[in-house]
Amino acid sequence: MPIYPIQTIASAPEKSKPVLEQLQQAFGFLPNLLAAISNSPKLLTGLAGLFQQVHSPGLTEAENQIVLLTDAVTNSSAYAVAFHTALAHEQGISSEETSAIRERRAPGDQRFAALSTLAKTLIEKRGHLSEQELDAFLGAGFTKEQILEVIAIVAASAITNYAGTITNPPLEERFRQFTWQG
């Protein structure tokens, strides 16, 4: 498997540097996964644009984390599972809810369960959802537009989950307590 260096802002390709600075500011640090992705300015720039949209008004940040954690588990991305478990807890999501997702079960909260189920089903069925599956999501109090927002989150996750599996960056110390093996 190829080795991808964990870049710093100083060592990254020129076209990645401003994007890394923007992402470092958004996270308050530079995650190793993004430092590895920065080896491709094209991929990093595409991810940053999608990241900005995913984290703009729409679903709450806690709801985003439910989808992101579900995507990471569904895609078996160990780095992303640990990362999004930590971010979910920072958003006030209980360990019971994150543990359920990490164990491939639906969370207890009805809205979180609907989000998690939709995200998992989108990935597993490659977007070919039944009317019943979409109605179940809408029945939990979400809108048609929010179905499309979840698709955007799933797309962003595909980038980070797949890149994380291929680049295999080391997990930061602060996330090691949430190490996961699918």
From TrEMBL:
It holds the Pfam family CMD. Residues 41-107 form the Carboxymuconolactone decarboxylase-like domain. It comes from the Bacteria. Signal peptide: none annotated. This is Carboxymuconolactone decarboxylase family protein. InterPro entries: AhpD-like (IPR029032), CMD-like (IPR003779). GO terms for molecular function: peroxiredoxin activity. It comes from Paracidobacterium acidisoli.
